[in-house]
Design a protein that fits this description.
The protein contains 2 helices and no strands. With 58 residues, the chain is mainly alpha-helical. 88% of the residues lie in helices and 0% in strands.
């Protein structure tokens, strides 16, 4: 029983790390696109953020 709980907790930690990495990658991508001028309107920014949100939900 204790081993199962430890495995579940370890899996949860891995999921948290992967999610944090995904959020960081999305943030870096957004900042790079803004810096390059690709995201030059509020509409484009919102559309990209919505796409990131959909990807992070999966």
């Amino acid at each position: 029983m204790h081993g199962d709980i430890a495995n579940i907790m370890a899996s949860m930690d891995v999921i948290d790390v992967v999610q944090q990495q995904s959020v960081a990658a999305a943030r870096n991508d957004l900042l790079a696109r803004i810096a390059s001028g690709e995201i030059d309107t509020e509409h484009k920014r919102k559309k990209l953020l919505d796409r990131y949100g959909e990807e992070l939900e999966h």
